[in-house]
Amino acid sequence: MKAISQELEVIDAPTPEPGEGEKLMKVAAAGVNRGDILQNQGHYPPPKGITSILGLEAAGYVDDEPAIALLAGGGYAEYVAVPEGQLMPVPKGLTMPEAATIAEVTCTVWSNVFMLAGLQKGQRILIHGGAGGIGTCAIQLAKHFDAEVAVTAGSQRKLDHCKELGADILINYKEQDFAEELKNSCDVILDIIGAKYLDQNVRALAYDGHQVTIGMQGGVKGELNIGRLLSKRGSISATALRARDTEDKARIVASTVEHVWPMIEAGEFTTQVSTVLPLEEAAEAHRLIKDGEITGKIALLV
To answer: What confidence score (pLDDT) does residue 100 get?
Structure first.
């Protein structure tokens, strides 16, 4: 089969043989994620026993039925083996490129913002990188559950896009200090930056607030003012979806489908696919994300 290697080269690879509890998916489209870029750069290796072929999500056909897959790797290919608990139905009305871009973001946002941090109606959430794939998903889910949404982004164009999706407070991180703007007010913070924002995030946290860090774009080592965090009774979690075991992923997938899929089918959630490229142009997809030229998600058509 045709596939894309970790080095972003088109290669011939053996068609995977499904193991126990797995199904073979004929891939129609694959979603592009920042985790793929990190793997290409050598910073996010696949878990032991997982293919080095890129791709954390895909949509296609399993036993001739349309399906979506949450993956630990292998989505940038014509076929991929998928644990059965990580397969999801395609919501009515979605194209394959749209379907291919929702597994990673919805499972990440639902598991972290709602299952872990427990965002409630009327609370304030701060979402960093509001115009990206995770951010555009998080805005929509938070607004659906009647939370107040603050976002950071690096341009007015991106902030305008966040506003269109329902964001209430718009902060240009290049011109404003979000910690001062939101001091002591954020019940939940969804953080893709990591070390660079650690101190500011703690200052922005409300009392009993919860920060969930899911990315390291701003580095891996930061200084934590434990006294400030303690005085707020605050908590910080750091999670990764890819390295969880199949049982844990199946639990998250089932909960996401239960709570988010009805929103999608009711037209209350848009997939935010801004660009669709052929599989062979995976390197261009990565360049667009690294250069910050897009909002939302990119899909690769197989």
So the answer is: 98
Q: What is the pLDDT of residue 293?
A: 75
Residue numbers in the chain where pLDDT is lower than 50: none
Q: At what angle do helices 156-165 and 133-144 cross, to 10 degrees?
A: 30
Distance (Å) of CA 2 to CA 77, 90, 196: 6, 24, 39
pLDDT at 231 (0 to 100): 97
Best CA proximity match to 122, nearest among 141, 147, 144, 105? 147
For the range 218-223, what are the long-range contacts, defined as Cβ-Cβ under 8 Å and sequence gap of 24 or more?
A: 218/193, 218/194, 219/194, 219/195, 220/194, 220/195, 221/195, 222/194, 222/195, 222/196, 222/198, 223/198, 223/199
pLDDT of residue 103: 98
